[in-house]
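Batch manifest, entry 17 of 40.
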Amino acid sequence: MIKNPDRILFRTGAGPQVGFGHLRRCLSLADAFVHYGAQCRFVCHGSAENIRIIERSGHAAIVLKAEPNSPEDLRETSAAVASFGAGAAVVDDYCVEYFGGLSKTGAAIVALDDLATRSFAACDVVVSSGAHAGTLPYPRASNTLFLLGPVYVPLRPEFWDVAPRQIAGDVRHVLVTLDGADPVNVGPVLLSALDAIAADFAITFVSGPFAHNQAQVKRLATGAQHRVEVLDAPADLVKLMRAADLAICAAGQTIYELAALGTPAIAIVVVENQVQHAAAFAEQNVIESFAWDPTRVAAVQTSILTLMGDVGRRRAMSAAGQRAVDGRGALRVARTVLDKIAGCNRESRSFRRSSGQGFTKNTE
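Output type: structure tokens
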């Protein structure tokens, strides 16, 4: 029987190489669990900045010392589950494959995934919230519950009740945000290309908490022909997204946030795991998408100019985004997981009464 069904432990990672999307969606999901009265704790690899971000969000955090996916990692994570008395362990890290071992803690196992490349036989719930999730080869005949598609994308409370967006006729404000890190140095090239466009607009450039090129971006902003404001990891990115007439972003978690707000966006694909969901959203007319190639940045410039001059297209993109993402995915996932834990507890009590034995969950 699960001892504390209202305690949720998150095992995730974030940093310059991993990106910030994993941590951000876990924090969003934690907000939803808290909304339903649960208590959350985090264990993670990465920098001290991770811990500051988590603690500023109101949750306790522990830094894992072991190598990811190692036996020591499993022992540390299992010990954290046990000491917290967690009813569920939420794992959001592509490298983790020890779901079977972690399930021996008795906690319900929840995996946040995007790739469908691992075995999830020991998981109780798998959340794959990408626009392409329904096309991935997840097993359909399984005891695992699969929550697939953008209807389950975990977004923060600011996105839970968003009004339909009204799109202005002119583009006066362009937002550039490249997630928590900029590992292939897209920012400076993109900012230079954007500044070269002969139109009347201001630029807000958001530099993420793990970005290494802030100084270069600020030098470019100082000499720009447009008015450019550079912000380092601002606390209220949602306000900036709402204020923008057009956004240029990395093709990660941010495209779902912009879709929920109805902000037209051009997404830049910089890593392999962004390809499929960006393509799916582009097919639905939610975004325009480009694979990053600094030698072909003129194509991005052309797309920006075209969208600036086509208010009908921007309005269609805005409406398509808000149809695809209503912002309440975190609430759906949290409610489903809490109901799943409650169901396990009921099954455990029933099994004990009928057989005098404990409830044993199948493992890998």
